[in-house]
Design goal:
This is EEF1A lysine methyltransferase 1. The chain is α/β, with parallel strands linked by helices. It is about 30% helix and about 15% strand. It has a seven-stranded mixed sheet with strand order 3-2-1-4-5-7-6. α3 crosses α4. The protein is globular and about 55 Å long. The C terminus is likely disordered.
Length: about 230
């Protein structure tokens, strides 16, 4: 082969080569993962730029158990921005429940058809196969504490749920008609507490009916447990 032919051989840039190597590494990771491993919490690393802080095993287990108890065998569960709970549910129940993960991070597409790309900025931009009020319970953990994020996430919740909701939030704002179901321990990577709330039926304006400013906020110890 002549020097001219060598010069004409296509060469990848350093950036393109790095991206290709990353792709092959991810593919190899998915191949290497067995059925018993791919649902482990932390198998996909946290990305703090996406406000990702995985639950501890204990917190994820508590939430998964509450969801299972709420819907019963054969129930349909939607995990909105709560991948750790999805993973724990799938670890506990492989066939007895239908579980979907609604998540912005496309790395979770490794879970196949159970992964639904979700951007809270477009709360109702969902595939046609996801029908309204098709889930027995929705578990949601809005990625940001802003009112806008909670409001838009609530639109998704109202669309998906048949009635029951587990809302996990670092905000201690109280909403009329909401009963606190549990107060978990801090997560493994965050000092924030997770407030867990169950609604038999969603209020008219879910996430918008905040307490009046003059009302006194009850301490966490006084929250009613169902």
């Amino acid at each position: 082969m002549s020097d001219l032919e060598d010069d004409e051989t296509p060469q990848l840039s350093a950036h393109a080569l790095a991206a290709l190597q990353e792709f092959y590494a991810e593919q190899k990771q998915q191949i290497d993962l067995g059925e018993d491993d791919k649902y482990n919490i932390g198998i996909i690393e946290e990305n703090w730029q996406l406000s990702q802080f995985w639950y501890s095993q204990e917190t994820a287990l508590r939430l998964a158990q509450e969801a299972i108890a709420a819907v019963g065998e054969g129930g349909r569960v939607a995990c909105v921005s709560a991948p750790s709970v999805y993973q724990k549910l799938r670890e506990l129940c492989r066939e007895n429940f239908t579980v979907y993960i609604f998540e912005y991070d496309k790395r979770f597409a490794m879970y196949g058809e159970e992964f639904i790309f979700y951007d809270y900025n477009n709360p109702l931009d969902l595939p046609e196969r996801i029908a309204a009020h098709s889930f027995d319970i929705v578990i949601a953990d809005p990625p940001y504490l802003s009112e806008e994020c909670l409001r838009k996430t609530s639109e998704t919740i109202k669309y998906l749920t048949r009635g029951k909701i587990l809302l996990c939030t670092d905000s201690f704002a109280r909403f009329p008609g909401w009963s606190a179901m549990a107060q978990s321990q801090p997560t493994a990577t965050s000092a924030s507490l997770v407030q867990v709330i169950l609604l038999p039926q969603p209020p008219e304006q879910l996430g918008l009916q905040a307490r009046a400013p003059h009302q006194e906020h009850k301490p966490a110890a006084e929250l009613q447990e169902l």
